[in-house]
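so my prof wants the structure for this chain in the C-alpha cells format not the other one, which i didnt know existed until like an hour ago. anyway here's the sequence
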Amino acid sequence: MRNRAALDWSNFLLADVQGGVGPFLAIYLWSGREWDATHVGLVMTIGGIATVAARSPAGAYVDSTLCKRGLVVSAAVVVAMGVGVLALFPSFWPVAGAQTIVGICDAAFPPAIAAISLGSVGRQAFTRRIGRNEAFSHAGNVVAAVLAGLAGYWIAPVAVLWLAVFFALLSAGAALSIDSGAIDYSLARGLDESSDADHGSARPRALSVIFESRPLLVFTAAITLFHFANAAMLPLVGERLSQGHKEAGSLFIGACIVVAQAVMVPMAALVGAKADDWGRKPLFLLGFAVLPLRGVLYTLWDDPSYLLSIQLLDGVGAGIFGALFFIVIADLTKGSGHYNLVLGAAATAWGAGAALSNAVAGVIVDRAGFNAAFLFLSGVATLALLLFWFAMPETGRKGEPIKGGVPAFPARDAPWRRWFRFMEPPSPPSSLLARPISSSRSARC
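here's what i got, hopefully its the right format
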C-alpha cells in the first residue's frame, strides 16, 4: 500500500499537533497562571475561530495544489513556533496572537492528510486507510497525553507546551517521508474515473452543486451541534478535577485524554473494518448517542475516578466520529472534484460550534456552576442525535449505491450558478490530472 508507513507515522506524530495542546493550555492558564474561566474560554475561542476561518480556504487550496506534503511540513513548523510563543509569553495578547496562528495552521492538516490518503490508496481502500489514520492518531494522542501529564506534574505545567513543540517538529520530519509522486492528484480531490466518463473530462463540477445536496446540509448541521456540545466538556472536566489540586491539573487532564484516546483506537479500527459492510449510519448513531449521556453523568458525582471513567464514553463517540467524518464526506462528494473543499467547509461549520462552545460554557460555569454547563451541553447533544437519526440517510454500504450524494452536473447552468464560480478552487493542469500515478513522480513538493 502506497505511503503506508509514512502516513502511519505522520498521523501518530501529528496527534499532539492537531489541537492537542488545547486542553493542556486551558489547565496551564487556569491553574498555573490563575486566569479565570471566562478568559480561558475566550482565548480558546480565538484559536477556534481562526481555525474555522481558515478551514474552507485550506480545503480549497488542498484541492488545487500539488504541494500537499509541503503544506503539512510547513504548517507543522509554524505550529511549533506558535506554541513556543504560548510558553514564553503567557499574557493575554501574545497568547491570543499565537492561538490565531496555531489555529490557522491546524486547519490545513485534516484535508491534506485525507487528500494524500485518498490519492495514495484509492477509493476502494479509503475506508480502511482512514480507520488506520485515526487509530494511529489516537495512539499518538495516548503517548503524548501520558508524557504531557507527567511533564506537567513532575516538571511544570509549561512543560506540556514544549512537548508539543517537539512533536510538531517530529511530525514535519515524518511528513517529508511521504512520496508525493505516489499520489493520484485527480482522485485526491474526489474526481473519480467513473465520474469523468460521465462528463467527458477530469474537471470539478460547479461549486454550487454542493449546496443542492440535502444530506450534506443535514450532516453538516448535525455535526455542528455535536461539536458545540462536545468541545467544552473535556476542558470543563479538567478544570473541575483541578479544583483544590492546581498542581495536579496537567496530570488530571492527561489522564482524561489517555482514557478517552485508548478507547478511540479500537473504535477507529472498527470503523475502518466494518463501515463498508454495516453502513455508516448505525455506527454514527452510536457516536451521537453517547454524548448526551456523558454530559448528564458528569453532574452526578465529583469523584476524580468517577469523572475519569466517564471519559470512556468520550472515546466511543470521538473515535467513531473522527473516522466516519472523512468517509461520509467522501461518499457525498464522489465525483465532484471538491472533496477537500467540502471537508473544510463542513469542518468550518462544526468548528464554529466548537469555538462557541468554550466561550458559552465558560460563562455558564462562572454564573451557574459546572453542573448547569454540563446539562446545557447535554441538551444540545440530544438535538444533534435526533437530527441525524431522523433526517440523515445511509451514504454507503458495500454493494449498494451511495445515497444522497452531490447531484449530477446539470446540462445547462442556471444563471445563479455563475455567482459561485469565483469561489471555485483552480484545477491542477489537465496534463497532470491525466497522468498515471507512476508518471507523476517528478511533481514532488
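also thought this was worth mentioning. The chain has 18 helices and no strands.
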